[in-house]
Amino acid sequence: MTLLAVAVITWIIWVVVGKTLRPVADIRTRVSEITVSDLRLRVPEPPHDDEIGQLARAVNHTLARLEEAVEYQRHFASLVSHELRTPITALQTRLDEAVLYPDQVDTRETIAASLSIAGRLRAVIDDMLMFTRLRTASAPSPEPVDLGVVINDELLTTCRDVPVFTHVEGDVKVLGSGSQLIGVLNNLVVNAQRHANTRVEVSAARLDGHVVVSVTDDGDGIAPCDRERIFKPFVRLDDGRRKDPNGTGLGLAISRATAVAHHGTLQVEDSPRGARFVLRLPAMEPKHPRPPSSGHGTEAPDLDPW
Q: In terms of domains, do 130 and 208 share one?
Protein backbone atom coordinates (compact mmCIF):
# COMPACT_ATOMS: atom_id res chain seq x y z
CA MET A 1 0.00 0.00 0.00
CA THR A 2 1.44 3.32 -1.03
CA LEU A 3 1.82 6.26 1.26
CA LEU A 4 -0.85 8.10 -0.74
CA ALA A 5 -3.36 5.30 -0.19
CA VAL A 6 -2.69 5.33 3.54
CA ALA A 7 -3.19 9.08 3.62
CA VAL A 8 -6.48 8.82 1.71
CA ILE A 9 -7.80 6.08 4.01
CA THR A 10 -6.78 8.07 7.07
CA TRP A 11 -8.52 11.17 5.75
CA ILE A 12 -11.70 9.20 4.99
CA ILE A 13 -11.70 7.72 8.49
CA TRP A 14 -11.16 11.16 10.01
CA VAL A 15 -14.06 12.62 8.00
CA VAL A 16 -16.43 9.75 8.82
CA VAL A 17 -15.58 9.70 12.52
CA GLY A 18 -15.79 13.48 12.72
CA LYS A 19 -19.20 13.49 11.05
CA THR A 20 -20.40 10.70 13.30
CA LEU A 21 -19.21 12.35 16.51
CA ARG A 22 -20.22 15.90 15.60
CA PRO A 23 -23.70 15.47 17.19
CA VAL A 24 -22.00 14.27 20.38
CA ALA A 25 -19.85 17.40 20.43
CA ASP A 26 -22.97 19.52 19.89
CA ILE A 27 -24.70 17.75 22.79
CA ARG A 28 -21.67 18.26 25.04
CA THR A 29 -21.49 21.96 24.15
CA ARG A 30 -25.19 22.54 24.82
CA VAL A 31 -25.14 20.61 28.11
CA SER A 32 -22.24 22.76 29.32
CA GLU A 33 -24.39 25.85 28.69
CA ILE A 34 -27.27 24.62 30.87
CA THR A 35 -27.44 25.95 34.42
CA VAL A 36 -29.89 25.54 37.29
CA SER A 37 -31.04 29.11 36.77
CA ASP A 38 -32.07 28.34 33.18
CA LEU A 39 -33.15 24.80 32.36
CA ARG A 40 -35.08 25.71 29.24
CA LEU A 41 -32.22 24.83 26.88
CA ARG A 42 -32.34 21.51 25.06
CA VAL A 43 -29.67 19.57 23.21
CA PRO A 44 -29.98 19.23 19.42
CA GLU A 45 -31.65 16.00 18.33
CA PRO A 46 -30.23 14.31 15.22
CA PRO A 47 -32.92 13.22 12.73
CA HIS A 48 -31.77 9.60 12.74
CA ASP A 49 -32.97 7.06 15.30
CA ASP A 50 -29.53 5.75 16.10
CA GLU A 51 -27.78 5.57 19.47
CA ILE A 52 -26.81 9.24 19.37
CA GLY A 53 -30.35 10.30 18.52
CA GLN A 54 -31.73 8.18 21.35
CA LEU A 55 -29.15 9.68 23.69
CA ALA A 56 -30.16 13.22 22.72
CA ARG A 57 -33.86 12.50 23.25
CA ALA A 58 -33.14 10.86 26.61
CA VAL A 59 -31.12 13.91 27.69
CA ASN A 60 -33.93 16.27 26.65
CA HIS A 61 -36.50 14.15 28.48
CA THR A 62 -34.37 14.26 31.62
CA LEU A 63 -33.91 18.02 31.28
CA ALA A 64 -37.66 18.51 30.90
CA ARG A 65 -38.33 16.52 34.07
CA LEU A 66 -35.60 18.40 35.92
CA GLU A 67 -37.01 21.74 34.79
CA GLU A 68 -40.48 20.71 35.95
CA ALA A 69 -39.13 19.60 39.34
CA VAL A 70 -37.15 22.81 39.88
CA GLU A 71 -40.12 24.98 38.89
CA TYR A 72 -42.34 23.04 41.26
CA GLN A 73 -39.86 23.52 44.10
CA ARG A 74 -39.71 27.25 43.44
CA HIS A 75 -43.49 27.49 43.37
CA PHE A 76 -43.80 25.41 46.52
CA ALA A 77 -41.20 27.55 48.31
CA SER A 78 -43.17 30.66 47.36
CA LEU A 79 -46.38 29.13 48.71
CA VAL A 80 -44.66 28.08 51.93
CA SER A 81 -43.24 31.54 52.54
CA HIS A 82 -46.68 33.05 52.02
CA GLU A 83 -48.40 30.57 54.34
CA LEU A 84 -45.83 31.05 57.10
CA ARG A 85 -45.55 34.82 56.80
CA THR A 86 -49.13 35.48 57.95
CA PRO A 87 -49.03 33.59 61.28
CA ILE A 88 -45.48 34.75 62.00
CA THR A 89 -46.54 38.36 61.46
CA ALA A 90 -49.53 37.88 63.74
CA LEU A 91 -47.33 36.32 66.42
CA GLN A 92 -44.78 39.10 66.19
CA THR A 93 -47.50 41.76 66.41
CA ARG A 94 -48.95 40.28 69.59
CA LEU A 95 -45.55 39.94 71.23
CA ASP A 96 -44.57 43.48 70.21
CA GLU A 97 -47.75 44.83 71.79
CA ALA A 98 -47.01 42.91 74.99
CA VAL A 99 -43.53 44.43 75.15
CA LEU A 100 -44.49 48.00 74.19
CA TYR A 101 -47.73 48.23 76.17
CA PRO A 102 -47.41 45.82 79.09
CA ASP A 103 -50.01 47.65 81.17
CA GLN A 104 -52.62 47.63 78.39
CA VAL A 105 -52.25 44.03 77.25
CA ASP A 106 -53.92 41.01 78.83
CA THR A 107 -50.90 38.78 79.38
CA ARG A 108 -52.91 35.57 79.71
CA GLU A 109 -54.80 36.27 76.50
CA THR A 110 -51.59 37.14 74.67
CA ILE A 111 -49.92 33.91 75.77
CA ALA A 112 -52.96 31.86 74.77
CA ALA A 113 -53.15 33.51 71.35
CA SER A 114 -49.40 33.10 70.82
CA LEU A 115 -49.58 29.41 71.70
CA SER A 116 -52.44 28.98 69.25
CA ILE A 117 -50.45 30.64 66.47
CA ALA A 118 -47.38 28.56 67.33
CA GLY A 119 -49.52 25.42 67.16
CA ARG A 120 -50.72 26.36 63.69
CA LEU A 121 -47.13 27.02 62.59
CA ARG A 122 -46.07 23.62 63.85
CA ALA A 123 -49.00 21.94 62.07
CA VAL A 124 -48.09 23.64 58.80
CA ILE A 125 -44.42 22.66 59.13
CA ASP A 126 -45.27 19.05 60.04
CA ASP A 127 -47.59 18.75 57.03
CA MET A 128 -44.97 20.37 54.78
CA LEU A 129 -42.37 17.82 55.88
CA MET A 130 -44.80 14.96 55.33
CA PHE A 131 -45.74 16.21 51.86
CA THR A 132 -42.10 16.71 50.85
CA ARG A 133 -41.13 13.30 52.20
CA LEU A 134 -43.87 11.60 50.19
CA ARG A 135 -42.75 13.30 46.98
CA THR A 136 -39.02 12.68 47.37
CA ALA A 137 -38.51 9.58 49.50
CA SER A 138 -38.47 6.05 48.15
CA ALA A 139 -41.60 3.96 48.43
CA PRO A 140 -42.21 2.45 51.89
CA SER A 141 -41.61 -1.25 52.44
CA PRO A 142 -44.91 -2.89 51.45
CA GLU A 143 -46.92 -4.82 53.96
CA PRO A 144 -50.38 -6.36 53.66
CA VAL A 145 -53.06 -3.86 54.65
CA ASP A 146 -56.68 -4.93 54.97
CA LEU A 147 -58.64 -1.79 54.13
CA GLY A 148 -61.80 -3.49 55.36
CA VAL A 149 -60.33 -3.67 58.85
CA VAL A 150 -59.15 -0.07 58.57
CA ILE A 151 -62.59 1.13 57.53
CA ASN A 152 -64.60 -0.86 60.05
CA ASP A 153 -62.24 -0.47 63.01
CA GLU A 154 -59.90 2.49 62.65
CA LEU A 155 -62.28 4.93 60.97
CA LEU A 156 -65.11 4.42 63.42
CA THR A 157 -62.98 6.12 66.07
CA THR A 158 -63.07 9.34 64.01
CA CYS A 159 -66.83 9.64 64.16
CA ARG A 160 -67.94 13.01 65.44
CA ASP A 161 -71.40 14.52 65.29
CA VAL A 162 -71.95 13.20 61.76
CA PRO A 163 -72.44 9.40 61.61
CA VAL A 164 -70.32 7.29 59.26
CA PHE A 165 -71.92 4.34 57.45
CA THR A 166 -69.54 1.72 56.07
CA HIS A 167 -69.90 -1.07 53.53
CA VAL A 168 -67.04 -3.41 52.63
CA GLU A 169 -67.55 -5.98 49.89
CA GLY A 170 -65.19 -8.90 49.42
CA ASP A 171 -61.43 -8.98 49.76
CA VAL A 172 -59.95 -5.47 49.88
CA LYS A 173 -56.34 -6.13 50.84
CA VAL A 174 -53.54 -4.01 49.36
CA LEU A 175 -49.78 -3.74 49.78
CA GLY A 176 -48.39 -0.57 51.31
CA SER A 177 -47.77 1.40 54.46
CA GLY A 178 -50.54 0.79 56.93
CA SER A 179 -49.98 4.03 58.84
CA GLN A 180 -49.94 6.13 55.66
CA LEU A 181 -53.10 4.56 54.25
CA ILE A 182 -54.89 4.94 57.58
CA GLY A 183 -53.88 8.60 57.47
CA VAL A 184 -55.38 9.01 53.99
CA LEU A 185 -58.70 7.40 54.88
CA ASN A 186 -58.88 9.23 58.19
CA ASN A 187 -58.27 12.54 56.43
CA LEU A 188 -60.96 11.82 53.82
CA VAL A 189 -63.52 10.83 56.44
CA VAL A 190 -62.81 13.82 58.71
CA ASN A 191 -63.00 16.10 55.68
CA ALA A 192 -66.33 14.54 54.66
CA GLN A 193 -67.74 14.91 58.18
CA ARG A 194 -66.76 18.55 58.14
CA HIS A 195 -68.81 19.24 55.01
CA ALA A 196 -71.67 16.75 55.44
CA ASN A 197 -75.17 17.69 56.52
CA THR A 198 -76.39 14.42 58.02
CA ARG A 199 -74.20 11.46 57.02
CA VAL A 200 -70.98 10.12 55.50
CA GLU A 201 -70.78 6.87 53.55
CA VAL A 202 -67.58 4.84 53.13
CA SER A 203 -67.51 1.84 50.82
CA ALA A 204 -64.76 -0.47 49.57
CA ALA A 205 -64.79 -3.16 46.91
CA ARG A 206 -62.48 -4.94 44.51
CA LEU A 207 -62.81 -3.92 40.85
CA ASP A 208 -60.59 -4.73 37.85
CA GLY A 209 -57.51 -5.55 39.89
CA HIS A 210 -57.89 -2.54 42.17
CA VAL A 211 -59.40 -1.84 45.56
CA VAL A 212 -61.77 1.10 45.18
CA VAL A 213 -62.62 3.09 48.30
CA SER A 214 -65.34 5.73 48.07
CA VAL A 215 -65.97 8.41 50.71
CA THR A 216 -69.19 10.35 50.11
CA ASP A 217 -70.90 13.11 52.08
CA ASP A 218 -74.30 14.76 51.62
CA GLY A 219 -73.05 18.34 51.75
CA ASP A 220 -72.93 21.01 49.07
CA GLY A 221 -70.40 19.18 46.92
CA ILE A 222 -67.41 20.51 44.97
CA ALA A 223 -67.72 22.43 41.72
CA PRO A 224 -66.17 20.63 38.72
CA CYS A 225 -63.70 23.49 38.20
CA ASP A 226 -62.32 22.96 41.73
CA ARG A 227 -62.11 19.16 41.76
CA GLU A 228 -58.49 19.06 40.66
CA ARG A 229 -57.39 22.33 42.21
CA ILE A 230 -58.16 21.22 45.78
CA PHE A 231 -55.33 18.66 45.62
CA LYS A 232 -52.70 21.38 45.15
CA PRO A 233 -50.73 22.47 48.25
CA PHE A 234 -52.30 25.24 50.34
CA VAL A 235 -55.42 25.50 48.15
CA ARG A 236 -58.49 25.93 50.33
CA LEU A 237 -61.96 26.78 49.11
CA ASP A 238 -63.98 29.44 50.89
CA ASP A 239 -66.29 26.85 52.45
CA GLY A 240 -63.28 24.93 53.74
CA ARG A 241 -61.75 28.02 55.34
CA ARG A 242 -65.04 28.80 57.03
CA LYS A 243 -65.58 25.30 58.43
CA ASP A 244 -61.96 24.64 59.36
CA PRO A 245 -60.13 27.95 59.88
CA ASN A 246 -57.13 26.21 61.48
CA GLY A 247 -56.51 23.81 58.61
CA THR A 248 -53.14 23.81 56.87
CA GLY A 249 -54.39 23.33 53.31
CA LEU A 250 -52.12 20.31 52.84
CA GLY A 251 -54.38 17.43 53.85
CA LEU A 252 -55.67 16.55 50.39
CA ALA A 253 -52.28 17.19 48.79
CA ILE A 254 -50.72 14.72 51.25
CA SER A 255 -53.51 12.21 50.62
CA ARG A 256 -53.00 12.30 46.86
CA ALA A 257 -49.21 12.11 47.20
CA THR A 258 -49.68 9.03 49.39
CA ALA A 259 -51.97 7.44 46.81
CA VAL A 260 -49.45 8.11 44.04
CA ALA A 261 -46.63 6.67 46.19
CA HIS A 262 -48.73 3.49 46.42
CA HIS A 263 -49.20 3.42 42.61
CA GLY A 264 -52.81 4.51 43.01
CA THR A 265 -55.03 7.51 42.36
CA LEU A 266 -57.23 9.85 44.38
CA GLN A 267 -59.80 12.05 42.72
CA VAL A 268 -63.23 13.62 43.08
CA GLU A 269 -65.94 11.96 40.99
CA ASP A 270 -69.55 12.76 40.18
CA SER A 271 -72.11 12.13 42.88
CA PRO A 272 -75.90 12.66 43.02
CA ARG A 273 -75.32 14.86 46.05
CA GLY A 274 -72.40 16.07 48.07
CA ALA A 275 -68.75 15.27 47.35
CA ARG A 276 -67.42 11.83 46.46
CA PHE A 277 -63.71 11.09 46.88
CA VAL A 278 -62.52 7.88 45.22
CA LEU A 279 -59.25 6.17 46.15
CA ARG A 280 -57.97 3.42 43.84
CA LEU A 281 -55.08 1.18 44.87
CA PRO A 282 -53.66 -1.97 43.25
CA ALA A 283 -55.26 -4.97 44.91
CA MET A 284 -53.09 -7.53 46.64
CA GLU A 285 -53.14 -10.74 44.65
CA PRO A 286 -53.61 -13.97 46.62
CA LYS A 287 -50.83 -16.51 46.51
CA HIS A 288 -51.52 -19.51 44.31
CA PRO A 289 -51.55 -22.81 46.19
CA ARG A 290 -48.42 -24.91 45.79
CA PRO A 291 -48.79 -28.05 43.65
CA PRO A 292 -48.92 -31.34 45.58
CA SER A 293 -45.57 -32.88 46.37
CA SER A 294 -44.40 -35.67 44.07
CA GLY A 295 -42.42 -37.32 46.88
CA HIS A 296 -43.55 -40.04 49.22
CA GLY A 297 -43.68 -37.78 52.26
CA THR A 298 -46.67 -35.74 53.39
CA GLU A 299 -46.27 -32.00 52.91
CA ALA A 300 -47.80 -29.61 55.42
CA PRO A 301 -50.72 -27.67 53.88
CA ASP A 302 -50.30 -23.97 53.14
CA LEU A 303 -52.75 -22.37 55.53
CA ASP A 304 -51.71 -18.79 54.73
CA PRO A 305 -53.90 -17.58 51.81
CA TRP A 306 -51.70 -14.54 51.35
A: no
